[in-house]
Amino acid sequence: MQTRRNFLYNTGALAVGSVLLPSFVNPSKKVKNIGVQLYTFRKEMLADAKGTLQKIAASGIKQIESAASEKGNYYGLSPKEMKTICSDLGMTLRSGHVHIDDRWQQTMNDAAESGQEYLICSTMATSGQTVANYKAVAEAFNKAGEECKKLHVRFGYHNHAYEFENENGKVLYDVLLENTDAALVNMEMDLGWVIVGGKDPLEYFKKYNGRFPLWHLKDMDLQKKQSTEFGKGGLAIQQMLQHSKAAGLKYFFVEQEEYTIGPFESMKENISFLNALVL
Predict the structure, then answer these.
(1) Which residue segment(s) compose the domain that 145 sits in?
(2) pLDDT tens, position by position, 39-61
(3) Fewer CB within 10 Å, N- or C-terminus of the chain?
(4) Contact (CB, 8 A) for 43 and 78
(5) CATH code at 238?
């Protein structure tokens, strides 16, 4: 099955790139305003973007993160159309995963026109798994962050598992964190890929307090190393949410790349799981 990482590699060498989370100070709080990464519904969005968004809204989802597709960053819709449709359905387009390419300026302009807050780099070329390469990438990300800031859009990066490899004992994801300006480069932590990479998200929340305003909330089958419905994998979802303040979390998106059932059925299970949590 084609993974999102492979899809992005096939559509561009370097890709760029939730839901408003309530305070979890009160332990009686429940999860609200659940968001979704639209790659979860990639085939459906390409076939019928508006109809799929209507079904997503009917499920109770309030926040949307888009992903680059063969029909563009908004699935054949214009930025304004995407914004309007989401708004009319009671949802907000918060973020989008896009490509850094020769259309980068237009991509930023479109994001500003859509009203979204974030542009997220969702993967990087893995040919240079070295400290030197990650320092160079960090410099490029700082520049992208400055460019986005001029248009009142926030730039960020989304991890997979390979960033947690190391060179001479130095974890490459740490190099990225330590060489990017927190005011310019926002980290969207994919919690599932962190645990596949052999690391603990809570340790990152503690070490790099407040650096992770965005999450992909994703449970993972650790044997198959692929996503699964909430409660069927190895991510301690409730524990993660209870430490959202340390992460600096503002929005999270549920993303599911593979399913044991269909995407809407899987999302229904995920939403039911979240609705049952008391934090």
Answers:
(1) 4-275
(2) 999 999 999 999 999 999 999 99
(3) N
(4) no
(5) 3.20.20.150
User: Whose CA is closest to 177, among 144, 217, 131?
Assistant: 131
The count of domains in the chain is 1
User: For residue 20, is pLDDT > 80?
Assistant: no
pLDDT in tens, 179-193: 999 999 999 999 999
SS (H, E, C) the chain: CCCHHHHHHHHCCCEECCCECCCCCCCCCCCCCCEEEHHHHHHHHHHCHHHHHHHHHHCCCCEEEEECECCECCCCCCHHHHHHHHHHCCCEEEEEEEECCCCHHHHHHHHHHHCCCEEEECECCCCCCCHHHHHHHHHHHHHHHHHHHCCCCEEEEECCCHHHCEECCEEHHHHHHHCCCCCCEEEEEEHHHHHHCCCCHHHHHHHCCCCCCEEEECEEECCCCEEECCCCCCCCHHHHHHCHHHHCCCEEEECCCCCCCCHHHHHHHHHHHHHCCCC
For residues 184 and 138, give the distance between their C-alpha atoms in angstroms, rounded to a whole number: 11
